[in-house]
Write a structure and sequence with these properties.
The chain has helices at residues 2-25, 28-40, 59-90, 97-107, 163-170, 192-210, 265-278, and strands spanning 114-117, 120-125, 128-135, 140-146, 158-159, 180-185, 213-218, 240-245, 250-254, 257-262. The chain is an alpha/beta fold. The strands form two sheets. The protein has a six-stranded mixed β-sheet with strand order 5-9-10-8-6-7. Strand 1 (114-117) and strand 2 (120-125) form a beta hairpin. It is elongated.
Length: 283
């Protein structure tokens, strides 16, 4: 009987605890706590450290980058080489003035910048016309520069005989050295710049090809003539070249004196015509 009473008491206690547990679950506050606990157990909280960018390249990416670099470098070298080498392979121009003359004579060119005139090669090179003249003293060919080629000089006529002038040079006693002549001009010439240019072209050619040097002179007193002799065509029997500005463009020889005349650049053209006569290039 005692055993039955204890069994009933134990059963009654168990049923009472079960009812209390059910009553707690039915309360809203308890239900909310359970819900928060359940959801919190599955929530991932953000880390307190800042995010980082993953820039690590794979070996395949590094290999592709290296390959691209070498391809670009190779293309750059090829293009750079082409810039320097292609003109050399496809350029028709020889490297030296002598080669240009030889090509001109071999092909008998007739262009605006290269042609053969009376057996002489003329080429326009670096702003001037060049031909080759044999220097009998040096036994060699010289490239002589001119501002005009023979095709641009055919309208200028030389009158008179220039042989007495050269005969006078051979017997000249102007200075202690032989082969001299007077190169005279007026200090009051209105186109003195062209007189100087024409005189320089004449002197350079005669010195180079004939070893003939001029002695500067003036036709009258004036600025720049203080230290040179006064010489005209009529004041001496020595060879004289008189440079003067004027029209028309002409060259005339009278005994020991040769007058070269032209207005502005025409004076330079007349000098070149005279030189080509001396070289037997033009009649």
């Amino acid at each position: 009987m005692v055993f039955d009473d204890k069994k009933e008491e134990k059963q009654s206690s168990h049923e009472q605890g079960h009812k209390e547990h059910e009553s707690l679950e039915e309360q809203p506050a308890f239900h909310q706590i359970r819900t928060e606990h359940s959801s919190g157990s599955h929530t991932t909280h953000p880390s307190s450290s800042p995010p980082t960018n993953d820039t690590t390249h794979t070996p395949a990416e590094e290999q592709d980058s290296t390959k691209t670099f070498f391809i670009a470098l190779g293309l750059f070298i090829v293009i750079l080489g082409a810039i320097f080498l292609i003109p050399r392979f496809f350029s028709d121009e020889p490297q030296t003035l002598n080669e240009i003359h030889q090509e001109n004579l071999g092909e008998q060119k007739d262009t605006e910048t290269a042609y053969v005139y009376n057996g002489y090669s003329f080429v326009y090179y670096d702003g001037l016309w060049y031909t080759q003249i044999y220097n009998q003293f040096a036994k060699d060919l010289y490239d002589v520069p001119l501002h005009f080629g023979p095709k641009n000089l055919t309208d200028i006529v030389i009158t008179g005989d220039i042989n007495p002038f050269f005969g006078g040079i051979l017997t000249s006693n102007i200075s202690n050295s032989s082969s001299r002549f007077y190169l005279t001009f007026s200090p009051n010439d209105p186109k003195m710049g062209y007189v100087a240019l024409a005189s320089g072209e004449l002197t350079q050619n005669l010195v180079t090809t004939f070893n003939i040097a001029p002695v500067s002179a003036c036709t009258e007193e004036g600025s720049g003539c203080e230290m040179v002799p006064l010489v005209t065509c009529d004041s001496t029997d020595q060879p004289v070249i008189f440079m003067k500005s004027g029209s028309p463009t002409l060259i005339y020889a009278n005994g020991n004196c040769i007058t070269i005349q032209g207005e502005g650049v025409e004076l330079v053209r007349a000098v070149d015509r005279f030189l080509l006569k001396l070289y037997n290039v033009m009649i």
